[in-house]
Write a structure and sequence with these properties.
It is a single chain. By secondary structure, the chain is mainly α. It has helices at about 5-15, 30-40, 55-65, 70-80. The longest helix is centred in the N-terminal third of the chain and has 13 residues, at about 5-15.
């Protein structure tokens, strides 16, 4: 596997921890802060991947294949541009 593929695989595992709801992680473990730091430092999304313009839930839905970035944007436009 190439480095990019390994980073994407790692991101998929991290993003889906605690069923995709990082707020479920116990604060005492520092896990959420470490995961956010890893994401910010190492996860470099491609043009087709989720980015900071999407909410955490939208990112989870995109990563899981439940939706696409284009579908999220279309839905926002349908709802009057609300994020």
């Amino acid at each position: 596997m190439e480095t990019k593929e390994l980073l994407e695989l790692a991101w998929g595992l991290i993003a889906n921890a605690y069923e995709g709801d990082w707020d479920k992680a116990p604060e005492s473990t520092g896990w959420k802060k470490a995961a956010e730091r890893w994401r910010d430092e190492y996860h470099k999304p491609s043009a087709n991947a989720p980015c900071e313009n999407f909410s955490h839930q939208e990112q989870q839905d995109i990563i899981s294949g439940a939706t696409t970035p284009a579908d999220v944007i279309a839905e926002r436009e349908k709802d009057g541009g609300k994020e």
